């Protein structure tokens, strides 16, 4: 599938953390980006993308769109051969997972892809999914053939009552594949990133990534961090993967996009080694029984089941498909974390008021 770069491309959720870097790379390649956002008239929201466009050979056009409204992307999609669907409802603290996570995730995917079905110019959709659609808990790795997560695997351990966000990501991606199989005009390529870190195009992003890395340095974890392992990917590498999924003709199926595995103590150690004692990075690794006991009190989303199934369990994924088929290379984790934390320092995240 060859995509004509002289034609515009659509990016949903264009002001988001990952989408910002996707837009940046597209603009650098000289493309015309149709940026679908909820409030295109809000210049405070679009100013970072506007600045990117001013300093690139590409151009950007804004379109008003609501992920949960049918037909919302039809205008923005006109003439586009590639659609980058990055927009997704996200919240960890919910009271009704079915209504607040699952239904919006599936509906949003359906709304975008139904507009794709009605837009003859579209040839390829690149969907931002997650490794959460591949596994639910770290302990799931013990049932994998080679103790590594791969693209062939699906999350079967999450539910409305346990890891509902991961459950919603799984159902949303399955919805996309189901809709793709019902037609033959456009193809679907899915990006499955692990935990995303790295500086934002918008330095004041609202992603959970910003929250966690900030907490590493603001004293939240001063008493210690749990030995919770996870995969980590730089947002800049993730954006590059999106472009490759769109423009490498042979790209197909799902791609795990993850540089390496780490853990909360591992992330802390890298930051502490570089930035020294100026910030209260956690030094101790909290005992699992203590995390199990007090975790739900400190954070209701951190259930005892989640602690049992994730703390002290390893995490490892095979990113070989992305290397072999897309030509991906991954930057060192230290570079990603140092650049991210330095951006927070530069933007006064830790200045005492």
Account of the 3D structure:
The chain is of the alpha/beta class and 353 residues long. The protein has one domain: NAD(P)-binding Rossmann-like Domain (Rossmann fold), CATH 3.40.50. It has twelve helices and twelve strands. The strands form three sheets. A seven-stranded parallel β-sheet has the order 3-2-1-4-5-6-10, sandwiched between helices. Strands 7-9-11 form a three-stranded mixed β-sheet. The mean pLDDT is 94.
Strand content: 15-25%
**Uncertain parts:** none
Average pLDDT? 94
| Chain oligomer state | single chain
Global geometry: globular
Estimate nothing, just give the exact number of structural domains.
Answer: 1
Distance between the termini: 54 Å
Using only C-alpha atoms, the radius of gyration works out to 20 Å
Query: Which structural class is indicated by helix and strand composition?
Result: alpha/beta
Give me the CATH fold name. Rossmann fold
Number of E-state strands: 12
Report the biggest beta sheet as strand number plus sense, adding barrel if it closes: 7 strands, parallel
The DSSP helix count reads 12
Helix % is 25-40%
Could you give the order of the helices and strands?
A: EHEHEHEHEHEEHEEHEEHEHHHH
Just name the CATH architecture: 3-Layer(aba) Sandwich
CATH class: Alpha Beta
Major β-sheet strand ordering = 3-2-1-4-5-6-10
Considering the protein shown, what is the CATH homologous superfamily? NAD(P)-binding Rossmann-like Domain
């Amino acid at each position: 599938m060859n995509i004509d770069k002289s034609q515009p491309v659509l990016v949903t959720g264009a002001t988001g953390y990952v989408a910002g870097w996707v837009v940046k790379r597209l603009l650098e390649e000289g493309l015309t980006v149709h940026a679908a956002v909820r409030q295109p008239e809000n210049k405070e929201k679009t100013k970072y993308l506007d600045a990117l466009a001013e300093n690139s050979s590409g151009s950007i056009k804004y379109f008003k769109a609501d992920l949960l409204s049918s037909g919302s992307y039809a205008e923005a999609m006109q003439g586009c051969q590639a659609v980058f669907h990055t927009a997704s409802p996200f919240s960890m603290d919910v009271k009704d997972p079915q209504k607040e996570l699952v239904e919006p995730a599936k509906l949003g995917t359906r709304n975008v892809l139904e507009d794709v079905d009605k837009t003859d110019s579209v040839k390829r959709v690149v969907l931002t999914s997650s490794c959460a659609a591949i596994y639910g808990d770290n302990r799931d790795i013990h049932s994998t053939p080679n103790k590594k997560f791969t693209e062939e695997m699906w999350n079967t351990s999450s539910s409305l009552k346990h890891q509902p966000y991961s459950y919603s990501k799984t159902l949303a991606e399955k919805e996309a594949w189901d809709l793709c199989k019902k037609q033959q005009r456009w193809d679907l390529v899915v990006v499955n990133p692990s935990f995303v870190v790295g500086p934002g195009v918008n330095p004041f992003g609202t992603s959970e990534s910003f929250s966690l890395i900030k907490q590493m340095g603001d004293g939240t974890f001063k008493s210690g961090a749990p030995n919770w392992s996870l995969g980590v990917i730089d947002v800049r590498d993730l954006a590059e993967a999106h472009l490759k999924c769109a423009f490498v003709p042979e790209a197909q199926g799902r791609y795990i996009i993850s540089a390496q595995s780490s853990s909360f103590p591992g992330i802390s150690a890298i930051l502490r080694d570089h930035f020294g004692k100026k910030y209260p990075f956690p030094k101790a690794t909290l005992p699992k029984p203590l995390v199990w006991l007090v975790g739900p009190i400190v954070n209701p989303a951190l259930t005892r089941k989640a602690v049992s199934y994730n703390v002290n369990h390893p995490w490892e994924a095979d990113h070989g498909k992305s290397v072999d088929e897309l030509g991906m290379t991954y930057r060192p984790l230290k570079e990603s974390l140092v650049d991210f934390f330095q951006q927070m320092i530069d933007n006064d995240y830790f200045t005492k008021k």
